[in-house]
Design brief:
The protein has 13 helices and ten strands. With 300 residues, the chain is α+β, with helices and mostly antiparallel strands. A five-stranded antiparallel beta sheet has the order 1-2-3-5-4, sandwiched between helices. A three-stranded antiparallel beta sheet has the order 6-8-9, with helices on one face. A hairpin with an 8-residue loop joins strand 1 and strand 2. The chain starts with 6 loop residues before the first helix and ends with a helix. Keywords: Kinase, Transferase.
Amino acid sequence: MAFEPPQRLVRALGELPRTAQDTQWLERLPELAKEALERREVEAQRVLAPGGRSSLVVLVRYADGTPAALKLAPPGARPDRELAALAHWGGFGAVRVLDSRHHEDDGAILLERLQADVSLRSLPEAKALLEACGTLRRLWVRPPAGHPFETVTERTAVQSEALRSAPPETRALVDTALDLRSQLVAHPPEELLLHGNFRQGKVLAGERAPWLTVGPDPLVGERAYDLARLVRDRLEDQVAASAGAAGARRRVNKLADSLEVDRERLRGWTVFRAVESGVRALSAGRRRDAELLLEFAAWL
């Protein structure tokens, strides 16, 4: 079986700052995948395509026919942190790790098999948001002692530095986002383990539980930061609905109230994360995505 990385993964990695380590990982990916399979004594069935933007996922099975999924991510994606978060959640609201013994050898993670083609995005919007909120409640727990995760303050500090060199046409929104971020990190209200990249597409149907989250980019901080990415989910649909600023604010308020999160803190983090994503999309040449994100941020 060929283990060539899907083009979606290649394009996504090309948008990120590349390290020599990550470049080498991408070049050696077919070889690394074969080694990881042999090490865990599982057989490949097929590569998941189009797959994710940050990893290669191979659907596999044990000798007894038990299905599983093998995930390989570049070192820069810190798969060790993903493993630590999934292990801490222990399958409660999240995909379960099946074997972590060999992780330090190759960075790959063997996971229980979920239905990759059935996410919360397959549900009507109201039902999807209800299930998403229920999943987030399970994930927001105290981090383990001596955890390896960065904080919201640390991650957004790096992002803020990148924003300072944003194109002039985004300057007003960028300045607003940076001001909001400064106010938000000055007095963080809580320190919980966060998914870091939570949205409807990251919650898949399973057999052990109806819905389980995958693909965390974990960090420690306040719930409003984690919820902010969900606010702009199905963004094209939101823009097409023509509800504009009023609709965006209603969505913020509804999600904040559902999870007992401060409305203004959620609004602030939603603006910051939308602007940061929009500027990054602009620099990668994804102008349509950038325009949607920046328009949404302006509404708030």
